[in-house]
Amino acid sequence: MPKLTLTFKGHIIDVYHLEGGETHIGRDEGCEIHIDSLAIAPRQALIRQIDNDDYQVSSLDTEFPVLINHEKIERKRLHHGDVIQIGKHTLTYAEDVMELGADLTVDLRNTEETQAADSEALPTTGMLQIMNGENFGRIIPLKRNMTRIGHVGGDCAMISKRDDGYFLSFLEGPNPPVVNRHPIGDESYRLNEGDVIEVGGTKMQFHA
Phi first, then psi: what are they for 81, rounded to 5°? Predict the structure, then answer.
């Protein structure tokens, strides 16, 4: 059964199973997915089954846009791994490949967090959400000065927390990181809300 995982700033709020028919998303209490936020329209989006187990999302209010994978849409068929942005909340669509539990802030295999020796850990403000593979839906909190992502001996990158934001840098491997489908090369890239990062075949979305 397909499902939507609702998150806010890296914290999972709820998981909704789609059982066919129509699912309204908004701050109206009558919505099947009710999000109590003034940044969201009373009825902002509609998800409905279109055939078999396929679902489609539609925007219902032009003043409150709906984004899928960082792109504004009016209507779009959902695919496994799509991340829907509603205000400052996100809904991750999964075609029932795994059940997302509460313990999503564990270290991931091939993910190593390192801290500068002369610095203290910073508060958790940023996060990455895995968008594909066996760790789909899991959260990597960016709670340290430096977070190393990638495969040992393969493509590796580093996310650094600075005073003016989070920056992605290429460390090693044959392929530099890709942000929103564009390789960053050897330059540091300042991450923005909703950026989609790819390192070593793993896709992650950044949330500040």
Answer: 95, -10
